[in-house]
Amino acid sequence: MDKEVNVRSSLLRLLWHRIEEDDLPGLSAQLAYFFLLSLFPLLIVLFTLLPYFPIPHQDMLGMIRDFAPEEAMDLIEKNVKEIMSHRNGGLLSFGIIGTIWSASNGINAIVRAFNKAYNVKESRSFIVARGMAVLLTFGMIFVFLLAVILPVFGREIGLFLFSKLGYTSQFIKFWNALSWLVSAIILFLIFTGLYWIAPNVKIKCRSAFPGACFATVGWIISSMGLSFYVGNFSNYSLTYGGIGAIIVLMIWLYLSAFIIILGGEVNAFYSEKYRSNC
């Protein structure tokens, strides 16, 4: 028992050393800035694709709404609606190319953070690295669309079947509980793809699982914790006025960035440990 405690203590010390050595707080602040720049372009792309799918507008942001603080969510929804109401042209307009490029800035910043975690330099050409960021952005868009489409159709099919049996209320309770599990699985798949493909190192897919598990659980807990704190113990809008929602959004993006980068550090730590034991 004492040996197991010592191993865990040693692991935490080594991980803390990596946090200080790689300046995770500073990297998280940079990544949060790029997340802010990428967030609305990414949502614009998603909403531009919306007419091609039978998805209600309110369901598009459902996954984010489950975790984001209320004030940050209100800011996101307000700005997305305002931007989309002034947009002209469809999916094939030239503007979508620039939007995708802007949305890939966040992925590009994640790549740099992961390379630092693995202590490697970016040897891929600018075109290859940026192209990968754009492809990962498209991958995330596809996963988000899938995450929205499946619950919408699943809920409708379930309601139809269970209403015939007279168990509509029971199904709704079951579905609400299941939606959390589905969201967690989708997050795990997104993080696994990022940790597997983004770093400039060759690793097996399963090598990305520890960091993906950590990031999934850590992101859900930190997001819900911040939502609970903002909703019950703090009123940023009352303290800071109109800028309060922006502050909450930036804090949420900062925590998200820190968790994502820390997941990369966890994978890098286990990768180094595996190589040293070989």
From TrEMBL:
Positions of transmembrane segments: 31-53, 91-111, 132-154, 174-197, 209-230, 242-263
Record's keyword terms, sorted: Cell membrane, Membrane, Transmembrane, Transmembrane helix
InterPro entries: Virul_fac_BrkB
Topology versus the membrane: Multi-pass membrane protein
Compartment(s): Cell membrane
GO CC, any one term: plasma membrane
Main location: membrane
NCBIfam families: yihY_not_rbn
Name the UniProt record assigns to this protein: Ribonuclease
Lineage, broadest ranks: Bacteria, Bacillati, Bacillota, Bacilli, Bacillales
